[in-house]
Input
Amino acid sequence: MPAKILVADDDEKFRTVVETGLKGDYEVLSAADGQIGVQLATKHLPQVILVDVIMPQLAGIEMLRALQSDMDTRAIPCIVMSASHATPATQDLFAQESNFFAFIAKPFQIPDLKLKIEAALAAAPK
Output
């Protein structure tokens, strides 16, 4: 059974590109904002969550913190994605969160994203 990956990003075109690139290797769930992302994570318990930094409803950092507050989702590794906020300060902010796994700057190549996902899956508690 393929690993379940949740993509939380408010850019529909970007989500579609990522979903298309990951389908076949993973079961992909999609959320247009952080609040929907938390709801889907709670319901479907994905193995890895891809989180955009800036989203409506709940921003990326708020989404990570909301996931940490739930026993069922607190250990899910999150890969944070950003184009405009791919700065050391942003990375440092996210790195303080226990469910943060990695940061990837947009635009990225799907094979590079898959490598980060595979590393997160390998490092995740079983």
